[in-house]
Amino acid sequence: MIAAPEPSPERDAAIRAMLPNVPLDGWTVRALAAGLVTLHEPPELWRNLFPNGPADMFEAWCDLADREMKAAAAGPDGLGEGLGLAARVRVLVVLRFRQLRPHREAMRRGLSLLAGAGRLPALAHITARTVDSIWHAAGERATDFTWYTKRASLAAVYSATLLYWLADESEDEEATLAFFDRRLAGLAAFGRVRRGLSGAFPCLPRFRRSA
Hints:
Tetracycline Repressor, domain 2
């Protein structure tokens, strides 16, 4: 699992304070400085909180969103009893987009920020951490080959769904969730095919994650 930034109440507070400014000013020092003023903090504090600037800000927000998603899933209105793994994953994705709904433009601007040359690895790391958070919150603890395949597959599905969501104008993200469901069903079909191949060809490699 790719390590997340060290949790910091000060960074969390700064991110929450700057979010209302991001749709207009983007993930910028200006947006953060304005947020810090509302917290009665000196604007120059941004250098201590986010030494790498805007990329650090967006990464910190994504980490905060991961933690908020897991906290919501652990609450009384989170994951229901008796749900299978796929259903739990879907609930977590619903929670994720519900929490992101007020901040669609902030997500759009953040993805644009990291889509530039040299920043794609950071975007891949952020996506991997979100997917790990979803799997862990869903209760998946596999350590064999599926640790890689499930996370890689969900990362592809989640990334595509996130881009779809950015343009979705349906009520309660209905179109986005239908999009996600179709791709999740495709993963299930692929898994059945692979299990069939593994039975027919037992020499297929089986990998284990190193401890």
